[in-house]
Amino acid sequence: MKVRRTETALGFILALVALGAIPAGLALILKPDGSILHMPTDILQGSPFKDFLIPGIFMLGVNGLGSLAGAVLCFIHSRYSAISGLILGIGLVVWITVQLLTTGLISWMQPVYFSIGLVEIILGLLIMRRMRNH
Q1: DSSP string covering 44-83
Q2: What residues contact 27, with CB distance under 8 A and at least 6 apart?
Q3: Per-residue pLDDT reduced to its tens digit, 78-89
Q4: Distance separating alpha carbons of residues 122 and 134, to the nearest angstrom
Q5: Other C-beta atoms lying within 10 Å of the C-beta of residue 107
Q6: Segments making up each domain of the chain, as ranges
Q7: What is the structure's pLDDT at 102?
């Protein structure tokens, strides 16, 4: 029973990440100049990107649709829920780390999402451990 509760908690976290990342990723793809989100491209100085198209594609695909798929796996209690949480958590932590290294701290949301990624990793590992013990 503890596995199911942990999967459900991870599912809610993944769903929340998806709810933020899908519209933001779409906005960056539709307007790579960042104007929809009021993000100037000059924050990309020092990064390999001249605009937000590639970051937008990553945000939509991995953090958005990937997290949505991971949430579904958790809610249906798939045997892949743990690994999806672990991989998506690692992806989110890497995403934020790359942002911080290339652009510096530009928003309070970066440390928040970094922490959320760590929680996803921990919950994924916890689910794996609990599944192994059953």
Answers
A1: GTTSS-SSSHHHHHHIIIIIIIIHHHHHHHHHTT-TTHHH
A2: 36, 37, 56
A3: 999 999 999 999
A4: 19
A5: 12
A6: 2-132
A7: 85
